Amino acid sequence: MKPFAYARPGDVAEAVRDVVAEPNAVFLAGGTNLVDHLRLGVARPDLVVDVRTLTSREVTDLPDGGLRLGAASTNSQVAADPRVRERWPVLAQALLAGATGQLRNMATTGGNPLQRTRCVYFQDVTTPCNKREPGSGCSAVGGYTRYHAVLGTPAVLPDPAAPESCIATHPSDMAVALAVLDARVQVLGPNGERTIPFTELHRLPGDDPSRDTVLEHGELITAIDLPALPAGTRSAYRKVRDRASYAFALVSVAAVVPPDGELRLALGGVAHKPWRATRAEEVLRGQQLTEDAVRAAIAAELADAQPQPGIDSGNGFKIPLVARTVLATVRGLLPEEQS
Amino acid sequence: MDAEITLRVDGEAHRLTVDTRTSLLDALRERLGNTSPKKGCDHGQCGACTVLLDGDRALTCLALAVAHDGAEITTADGLAPAGELHPVQQAFLDSDAFQCGYCTPGQVCSAVGVLDEFERGWPSHVTEDLTGRPEMTSDEVAERMSGNLCRCAAYVNITPAVQQAGGAR
Q1: Smallest CA–CA separation between A111 and chain B, in Å?
Q2: Which residue in the set A4, A82, A100 is minimally distant from B20, CB to CB?
Q3: Residues of B in contact with A102 (CB under 8 A)
Q4: B82 within some domain
Q5: Whole-angstrom Cα distance, residue A88 to residue A174?
Q6: Same domain for B94 and B22
Q7: CATH number reported for the structural domain that contains residue B120 in this entry
Q8: Are B97 and B162 within one domain?
Q9: What confidence score (pLDDT) does residue B169 get?
Q10: Are A4 and B3 inside 8 Å of each other by CB?
Q11: Are B70 and B101 found together in one domain?
Q12: Domain identity same for B9 and B34
């Protein structure tokens, strides 16, 4: 492991200043992803700035009926919070579907959405990867694509040698729930505070796959806010994976059905970012949530889906799997007589 | 780069100087001679290095020692301070919940954490009613213990051992 300096400043403002002053500095929170990357050589910082004990661990009520999750609150703490279980079950379910008890005790609200892809080539420093080493190419194209993207990718198959090629997916379950809940990210940076809608935190690879989010160097997540949902709202998270426990999603679905029936939908395991299914939501606006209507909506969402060929038949299986998982999730949220 | 830290391990305080790269696991094993937590994968995938870190089960391979200055750590060794076995350890013996034993200290620490999480009413992925109190069924225990791999596959005996220890409390 490359040597690095370690700092635990007195407060978050100092932590931001420390990171801003050192171009090759990173924030450390729970460490469940970063420490592994330090060991693998995927992350090679000169300075590690520990913020785990600097941001809030509290989960507090907001005046509008929402909830503020302090950045240092742990994944297990949030999943067990009675308010989250009662009013935002989609988030509790997503958190409980991720990782293991030990990891959830360490992983934090601020860190979870910033975890990096589990693309095997990203984690293997001996292979080309545009995300890890910009311009080196993409080993996943035509390689092992089972966990890779089908949405938000170019309409033609990417060129493995091109510097912009990246078909990685975002691995977080929590992030899919936060996307469907229209959570807001509170950020402190060198220019003060700003709020980022959760659906705009992560980005598609575009021309720079090395950047997962819109955060600038030195910007720190201090809290994530959950807006209130109307009384009577139902929500759920459904994850499909290769093992019953402790595995990343092949495909996952976060769904919210408010009393007015306007479905909100987000997908995991399908894109470089947690995928808010706005096209499906648009198709369903003002419609009854019948099986046929949901089927048509998800078909519209998947119209541009691009299956990736590769080892073990590639990942084309995700397209029908998304459709079925959405249907099953929505069916579970409708009152008996409607489903 | 070095840093000076204090770790309280199984009730005893230790002051030591560590390289900033040192994991909590290596600090315990190589510096303090506590070989109870095991190094399996060193990537947070196997659970053999599980301890109770400030009361909660955690993976010492993914924790930097320097980031846990002042932490209170209980290893499987520390669960039996005067040689008297913890109920979880006794239950593992009674249920023959291991073969080679390499994963056992991590399993035991994880199981102590699991029982505490049941006590606090924490739900899991397999809990039907998120707002209710989960029951200590074998499905619940298996899901909660999924972060501890056993290559001997003693799972069929580990699950009842955890349930027995839970019922005995």
Answers
A1: 14
A2: A4
A3: 44, 47, 50, 57-59, 110, 113, 147
A4: no
A5: 12
A6: no
A7: 1.10.150.120
A8: yes
A9: 43
A10: no
A11: no
A12: yes
Residue of A nearest to B20 (CA): A6
Q: Please, are residues B59 and B49 in contact by the beta-carbon 8 Å criterion?
A: yes
Domains of chain A: 5-50 (3.30.43), 55-339 (3.30.465.10)
pLDDT of residue B148: 98
CA B62/CA B47 separation, integer angstroms: 11
Residues B135 and B160 in one domain: yes
Of the candidates A85, A120, A84, A115, the one whose C-alpha atom is nearest the C-alpha of residue A98 is A115
Instruction: Verify whether the Cβ–Cβ distance A93 to B131 is below 8 Å.
Output: no
**pLDDT at res. A111:** 98
* A174 Cα to chain B: minimum distance (Å): 13
The domain total for chain B is: 2
User: Does B40 share its domain with B70?
Assistant: yes
> In the prediction, which pLDDT does A154 show?
87
ipTM of the complex: 0.98
Number of A/B CB contacts below 8 angstroms equals 108
Distance from CA of B4 to the nearest CA of A (A): 12
pTM over 0.90: yes
pLDDT given for residue B83 in this prediction: 86
Best mutation target, B130, B138, B140, B145, to test chain A (most A CBs within 10 A): B130
Q: Tell me phi and psi for residue A74, to 5 degrees.
A: -85, 160
> How far is A201 from chain B, CA to nearest CA, in Å?
26
Backbone angles phi, psi at A31, to 5 degrees: 85, 0
Domain finish residue from B55, B75, B95:
B75
Query: Which residue among B11, B45, B75 closes a domain?
Result: B75
Strands in A5-7's sheet, in edge-to-edge order, are: A5-7, A47-50, A25-28
Interchain CB contact of B160 with A (< 8 Å): no
User: Does residue B143 share a domain with residue B93?
Assistant: yes
Best A105, A118, A174, A239 residue to mutate vs chain B (most B CBs within 10 Å): A105
B128 touches chain A (CB under 8 A): no
Residue B43: domain span: 2-75
Identity of the residue in A6, A89, A102 whose CB atom sits nearest the CB atom of B59? A102
Q: Is the CB of residue B74 less than 8 Å from the CB of residue B21?
A: no
* Contact flag B64-A82 (C-beta cutoff 8 Å): no
What CATH number has the domain bearing residue B39?
A: 3.10.20.30
pLDDT along chain A (339 residues), means of 10: 97 98 98 98 98 98 98 98 98 98 98 98 98 97 97 91 96 99 98 98 97 98 98 98 97 97 98 98 97 98 96 96 98 77
Chain A contact for B122, CB < 8 A?
Answer: yes
Mean pLDDT across the stretch B32-36?
Answer: 98
Residue B121 φ then ψ, to 5°: 75, 20
What is the residue-averaged pLDDT of chain B? 97
pLDDT of residue A155: 83
- Asked if residue B98 and residue B50 are part of one domain, the reply reads no
